[in-house]
Fold these 2 entries.
Entry 1:
Amino acid sequence: METKEIYLESLITGTPQEGRELAIKLARKSIAAIQPDSETRKKLRSDYAEDTAKLIASSQVIATEFQTIAMANNFWK
Amino acid sequence: METKEIYLESLITGTPQEGRELAIKLARKSIAAIQPDSETRKKLRSDYAEDTAKLIASSQVIATEFQTIAMANNFWK
Amino acid sequence: METKEIYLESLITGTPQEGRELAIKLARKSIAAIQPDSETRKKLRSDYAEDTAKLIASSQVIATEFQTIAMANNFWK
Amino acid sequence: METKEIYLESLITGTPQEGRELAIKLARKSIAAIQPDSETRKKLRSDYAEDTAKLIASSQVIATEFQTIAMANNFWK
Amino acid sequence: METKEIYLESLITGTPQEGRELAIKLARKSIAAIQPDSETRKKLRSDYAEDTAKLIASSQVIATEFQTIAMANNFWK
Amino acid sequence: METKEIYLESLITGTPQEGRELAIKLARKSIAAIQPDSETRKKLRSDYAEDTAKLIASSQVIATEFQTIAMANNFWK
């Protein structure tokens, strides 16, 4: 069931903005790991992109992933 | 789907208050990344601004983003 | 939409108890940032103060904010 | 609305077990800060003590508060 | 209402696996602290063990407790 | 009720990608610890893999577990 694709080479990014983008990517890859069928995911996507509660819950995942990435990059200081 | 706008130049802010404002901004930008259509977001906004459960869930996202920002700024000490 | 009021001068508090009070204040200010209309907030308040699930969710926000404040104060050691 | 009672003198406890008890106390005090009426809280209590989802959500609050307390005590090492 | 049983002598465990088991135990003890009646808990247990949303929420509590335990053990390095 | 299988020998992984896979494994093992019957889990699995809210909640668990693993590996730096 687990995807064999390598999607995380490193937690280090050049800029905080790239850190945000990596956080979003990691959140999406978790969804893909649990639901590997891309057709099903496409259908679900329209579902959560228009549902406020799910959008907020997704933002929480991104915030948590970003905290890890920010720590890894020593907050880009 | 991902916005190409640079919205996070740095996690460093001058004051804790600015840190709060950055946390709120990051929470909003996550919503925008998942739902890029601003018209749809506008409609959803009125939805969550008057729904207690969603307001609380949004506050949780802000709290998590703020923790990261506060760590980045060594808590403004 | 963002409040211009300065409500967070510092994360440093004299006592752990004051840290709790600051955590509660930050949680409330996040709600106010998303829903700036105080009349609407007043109506919503009675809603969540009598709904167990929302009370617990609010406690989670306070716990997260407090963790940040406690770290900022080196746990008042 | 905020309780003036001092319920948190210190985050330092003698044992991990006392740390758990403090975490539970803090979680309860957050509820009391938002819903100051003890009669209302008593009614709500029977509500969440028999509702699995609310019990689990309360456990999450306790876990977060405990993490803060454990860090404050350097994990009682 | 609080259980007087000592269930947490130490956060230190011999192995990561024992750390997982302690995390699960702590999550369960929180439930017991809020709902001290074991008969009621037994009934609720069958409820959440067959409800996906509650299983996932329980996993979240375990993940948080485990993070604390892992930090206490310096990640068993 | 607790599984006696050793599924966590170490938090140390060779790569960040392996850290993600371990995070997913830990999340799954928590479910298995609470619901030990594999037949029941199989039925529940199809349930959450097609339910957006549950997929997002699962991603949150993975994000939390991954943060712990990333800290254990000093972020693979």
Entry 2:
Amino acid sequence: MTDLIARREALLGPNVPTFYDDPVHIVRGEGVWLYDAKGRRYLDCYNNVAHLGHCHPRVVEAIAHQAAQLNTHSRYLHEGILDYGERLVAKFDHGLSQMLMTCTGSEANDVALRMAQAVTGKTGLIATDNTYHGNTTAVAHLSTRRPPIGGYPPHIRRVPAPDSLAPLGGSPKAQAKAFAANVAQAIEELEQAGHGFAGLMLCPIFANEGMPGLAPGFLDATVNVVKRAGGLILCDEVQPGFGRLGSHWWGHELLGFAPDLVTLGKPMGNGHPVAAVVARPDVMAAFRNAFGYFNTFAGNPVSCAAANAVLDVIEDEGLVENAEAVGAYALGLLLELRHPLIADVRGLGLFFAIEFARDGLPDGAFCGRVVEAAKDRGILLGRVGRAQHILKMRPPLPFSRENAQMLATTLKDILQEMPA
Amino acid sequence: MTDLIARREALLGPNVPTFYDDPVHIVRGEGVWLYDAKGRRYLDCYNNVAHLGHCHPRVVEAIAHQAAQLNTHSRYLHEGILDYGERLVAKFDHGLSQMLMTCTGSEANDVALRMAQAVTGKTGLIATDNTYHGNTTAVAHLSTRRPPIGGYPPHIRRVPAPDSLAPLGGSPKAQAKAFAANVAQAIEELEQAGHGFAGLMLCPIFANEGMPGLAPGFLDATVNVVKRAGGLILCDEVQPGFGRLGSHWWGHELLGFAPDLVTLGKPMGNGHPVAAVVARPDVMAAFRNAFGYFNTFAGNPVSCAAANAVLDVIEDEGLVENAEAVGAYALGLLLELRHPLIADVRGLGLFFAIEFARDGLPDGAFCGRVVEAAKDRGILLGRVGRAQHILKMRPPLPFSRENAQMLATTLKDILQEMPA
């Protein structure tokens, strides 16, 4: 273990993130479980990439079978990308009927920004002030958790993120109004500065901001502001997508608005590097005609086979229904947790957040101790929020009631042993 | 076929590139061969992704085996990324001892640009005026074949690419001097404009520029200019890397210069989406300390298993030696081709270029007809160059003497039937 850490530092350099003070050495995955080198098992309550559970045999089989048949670029004709893409876009309304495949959510968001610029002929982009949309240079400009080298360029504006501890102002309705007003002001600033306004990128449930439990309709006023200004709503569904929310396949359906495009990533291939943008034909055409985009690995037959198997399993195993049912059950258990520092417990399907605050201020240190203690007891969690004070839980969708009980019981034990 | 084309247009939108006027419908690959839906086979002389041959069983087996074991992010400890990375960096000199993994060559080049900016604290970048380094927003700024939406930003400068038909000036030595002088002038312009100079990105054999057959030492003067100005040499080895040149594992070894980092892509996983930057520790540290880079899919155990199997096969099957021996044999055959429009025939290992010109001017139309005719006769080729007038041939490395004979004989027949 010490040896692996030393080898990492020698090979990968400094400041390469690992999870946990004493990182785990994972060698095997199966369903909701990860196993370390000593055979100890951990309940994975964090990894939304392994959407169907780790190493789902149908995805493994689809990859193995197709990799032995053909794995090449999309400049030749192949049914794989068409069969998958037609099935995928059928899951969207609002005229989102075309697809562009990439290898990562970062690449998808990078394309999405250019789509907005191609449609509008403007460059100005807006995101929230506490978010992450990926790691390319252009997308990192929006990602406030990881400030870009050389600072933020002038065509980017940031608006205050919805936050349950630091509300934008007043009642839920007033907060929605304040968010829209801040977007309107940012648009005005971009236009004054000569950049013009191309689009607003956001995760519809504000997952990286801490999933602040917004009601349907929260974004209606904002969407109106954006559309009136001629800009696009760029909806990053990398976290809420593919049925995690239980009630809906996509986050924007829950919030009830019509995006101009959506981007997809992590869960799409259950670990295989595949991602996509789904857009209206007018948006796709503006981009395709302005820019000769080609991505060597994207849309290859193996990626499409993996992604297609993911849809098969979600449907055949009823995983969206499971996310709704087990999600509600698990949320019920989490809501029974009692601790003086718990400020809020909330959930959407199999996506949960527990917020810790001390005297009304976020308590990231306490949240960090909970994550470490859970790891020591065999449960893998993450955290998020302005002060990393929010437990973030996104287990694989086959999460069971028994898994939920184990999670809730472990958290209860930990909290009992950790006075405020 | 018509149906597939119609489905592509409906799903993917306009202006999505396919190869050939009448695109092929490929359903299976094996070794150097691709098979269409009617069972017709094509000799693949273009696809450098299938470095070991299509669907190499050892890579398929490595992917299938690891995908069934574990496929998760690199924030947990795992031997896969370490075993692979240590083996990879051992193949480099010049202190290039650290690695950062990505999913695509575009992502690797996007990171490379930021590494140069992190080391120097400057933003100015230089590339040639006829190149392609990938598809992210930042990298597309360097890619002259595909102009960026909104035009080139002011911190990018382009210098005339080496070109066998439009020499930079005079003898090979004079051309090298002219290239260096143009880079020096671009650096001066970037400094005058307040951007400063971060780095020069280039493919060491100028593959996308048409592989103009440069002698070792061509870049020596340029490298001196760049280093004196405090900038970095960002060496894009996506095409020449992993032994394709036969004489060397990497293009910069052939040219004989010391890059500050190299980027790797297409052949690295024989089709699996995996790519990397290999850099000196000081370069890696500057980037890692300036920017919290994390890439969800990159360096996962499956990608590393695929990439490791690629190294196994290259070594066990003697593919670098084969590239050198069969490459020399094939070049000999190609040099025997006779046609009034052939301006030059050149090769480096299993990378060949045949340049067509009419009255000293590039003849892209003729080259296009050769590509189409070869496809009709069962040979897949591509083309490149300022006027798309250069046949580009990069077959999988197990290319045999028999394959080379088939390629040369087919080209001979085609050229005989196509008067100037």
